[in-house]
Specification:
InterPro entries: Gp3-like. With 509 residues, this protein is an alpha+beta fold. It has helices spanning 4-11, 31-34, 37-47, 53-64, 89-99, 126-129, 192-196, 225-242, 290-305, 318-321, 325-335, 363-372, 378-386, 389-403, 406-417, 421-424, 426-440, 444-456, 461-473, 482-493, 497-507, and strands spanning 18-22, 26-29, 70-73, 114-116, 130-136, 147-150, 156-160, 181-185, 199-207, 217-222, 256-268, 274-286. It has three domains: 115-163 and 177-288, no CATH class; 291-321, no CATH class; 325-507, no CATH class. It has 21 helices and twelve strands.
Amino acid sequence: MTSFLSDMVARQSAGFSISGKIRAGIKVPTKRTLDNPSAMEIVARVKKGEISFQNAQAEILKKTGLKNPFYPRNSRCFFAHPWDMESGKIASDQLLKLYGQVRDGDPEPRLYRFPVVFADIHRGGIDAALGSGLAVRGGGAQTIHYQSRYGDDGVRRCVYLPPVVPSKDASRKQFSRREFVVRGVCDTDLCPQFASGECRFAGTLRFYIPGMPGAGLYCLETGSTQAASEIYLRLSSLLDECGYLPNFIPDGRPVFWLTKALKNRVYYDEEGNQKKGEQWVPVLETEIDLTKVKMLREHKRMLLAAPSAQPAVSGLPAAWVMPDPQEAGAGHCAAESACQVDNDGVVLEGAPEQVTASDASDAWLVATAAADAGATTGAATEASATGASHGVAVDLLAKARDMGIEHKVTEWAALRYGAQWDKELAGTALEGFRAIHSRFGQHTGSFLDLQIRLLANDIPFQKVALPYFKAKFGGIGLGANLAAIIAHLDELLDQGPSVARSFMQANGV
């Protein structure tokens, strides 16, 4: 369904909610500004975070007549100015508190390195995380700000917004939206603005920062085509190898970190003269071993190609394929004696061998069902053997209908046991539902809502969701806090399933 707001947002060029901007460089006063006491009083306000460089430049011009009182300077660290943050100084102080470092005798903490998390990019590809283009920047109100845009046909064109023409009706309060006008094909070899340096490359990296509140993205702009290209290639290689961008490694540490490295680049000095030398440029570091990813993928292909054949000698180092002691312990528990379930739904000691779960998301549920059913799976087997599966499904749905949650049970069973659950696994589904209802009672519908969200978004319950809910809410208990848990989960899922999954993995107990 289309609405007024959805149409407006779709027509905006950015299309992203931004919580703040990280700067790769800094502006410093020119020699003339340093020699002017009145101008330096205004500069002092900039250092305190009271006004931006842009506002300071306007005030200095008005008060002293000095034009261009600042010039850009390359720096080893990043900057998060209060005026660039949605939450102002609170956000910039929080960022320094989390990731600020004191280096090289500088008593002030600086932002030399910080982790970043990318949103799901399967819809827009890498370009959704790293936007880029050519644009005329600066020049004042009379300058036509040309910019490049790609059309649906894949052709890059030069577009611009036409100047505002005073209307005959000066009392008009609502003005029509200006639409971009196509100037022609964007050809840098023939463009006078590109040749003169007015039109330049601009890349924008968009990301979340762990520990920073807010639903919007943060962004980092760079005018270096080489720096942006290196980041683009790094993201592309990981996407090709993994099939997605992994934001966290198994121990909860972020995969991606933004930092700076010294590289030979062309830059401009205080007088605007072009020079070449070493410059600190943004670099995207990754804490992931791609050789391990490649080896594991190759090993998986071998197993899929010949599932019944076991290789005599594994091609993987033993340490890579050795099961985690905790996971091994959990498997031992599931294979031997009957399990018990604690108040958080965590499997304790053992589960009957014949009671299994296709994944860990509700292993505790199957164990509970086994305990309630006398530790057997005979119900499902017998129903299938006698052709009574349809009758079992009807019985299950009748119970759900009496509780007013028939549609929830149907959706949960289809996600959990497959689309043919009512023909093949109706008995298992019935026992699972009985286990849920026995435990959660009046909160059964809410627990099904939670399971539906987790299953639909491929978030394992026992290994990922439950540890996080225990850390955040003290566990699920008997379901009294399920409404709050579901509301919080919906907020996480708004950022994308992989972001929600990674965040829960990193913050669980």
